């Protein structure tokens, strides 16, 4: 009996040591609920964007998107007030979705780290932040460059691919599960670059940032937070 108790104590000590090592090298306070909240925000934003596009002459916008390098579509519609107004609306909507998703992720992560007694902003979280934000900034500047030339065809694939790269890069400093979400985002973005799917960027955007986030969040909550 004493041997069994000693073995249990040893296993408990090993588990404690492992947890301390993980806390020192990885930020383990990311909440699965933050992924669910971000996914819901993305789906709501995609629904609003679809409504805006249909309201603002969907046929013209689709024709311009799919024939971006034909001079007729590029000159006649790209410089019109309707298209400029549509572009401003969609960029503003994307920014609003990002803010809502970021704030919800911050809240759920802060709540989990408080329950665990782990500081939200420490050496590990700073490394996680910088490894994630650099690919995001590069991707954001690349997308703004495309929008400057009214090239909408690869905006959605670029969003998904750069975001996936950011997740893979940041997975070294947090739960490794996030790496698989990054792989899925990259695959969805590359699929959207296929010629036959170019005009469906909004739906791929909703799939990557909405559905995948919700699935990831539920899986993470079930594995690490359900207890």
Summarize the structure.
The protein is an all-alpha fold.
Query: Helical percent range?
Result: over 70%
Number of strands: 0
| Domain count | 1
Instruction: Give the ordered list of helices and strands.
Output: HHHHHHHHH
Q: Can you summarize the main beta sheet?
A: none
Structural class: mainly alpha
What is the count of helical runs? 9
Which regions have little confidence, pLDDT < 50, spanning 5+ residues?
Answer: 20-25, 56-60, 66-77
Rg over C-alpha atoms, rounded to the nearest angstrom: 21 Å
- What overall geometry do the principal axes of the alpha carbons give? elongated
What's the mean pLDDT score?
A: 78
β-sheet strand percentage: under 5%
Distance between the ends: 29 Å
Report what the structure shows.
The structure is a single chain. This protein is mainly α and 227 residues long. The protein has one domain. The protein is built from nine helices and no strands. It has helices at residues 2-25, 32-55, 58-66, 71-78, 81-116, 123-148, 155-170, 177-192, 201-225. The longest helix has 36 residues, at 81-116. The two termini are 29 Å apart.
């Amino acid at each position: 009996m004493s041997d069994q108790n000693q073995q249990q104590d040893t296993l408990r000590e090993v588990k404690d040591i492992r947890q301390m090592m993980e806390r020192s090298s990885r930020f383990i306070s990311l909440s699965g609920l933050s992924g669910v909240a971000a996914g819901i925000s993305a789906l709501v934003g995609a629904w609003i964007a679809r409504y805006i596009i249909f309201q603002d002459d969907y046929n013209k916008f689709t024709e311009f998107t799919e024939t971006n390098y034909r001079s007729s579509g590029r000159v006649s519609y790209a410089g019109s007030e309707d298209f400029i107004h549509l572009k401003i609306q969609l960029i503003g909507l994307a920014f609003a979705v990002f803010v809502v998703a970021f704030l919800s992720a911050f809240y759920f992560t802060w709540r989990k780290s408080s329950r665990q007694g782990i500081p939200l902003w420490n050496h590990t979280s700073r490394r996680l932040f910088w490894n994630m934000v650099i690919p995001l900034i590069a991707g954001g500047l690349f997308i703004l460059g495309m929008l400057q030339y009214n090239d909408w065809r690869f905006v959605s694939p670029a969003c998904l691919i750069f975001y996936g790269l950011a997740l893979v890069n940041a997975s070294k400093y947090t739960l490794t599960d996030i790496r698989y979400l990054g792989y899925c985002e990259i695959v969805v973005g590359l699929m959207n670059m296929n010629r036959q799917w170019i005009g469906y960027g909004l739906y791929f955007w909703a799939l990557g940032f909405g559905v995948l986030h919700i699935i990831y969040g539920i899986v993470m909550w079930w594995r690490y937070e359900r207890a």
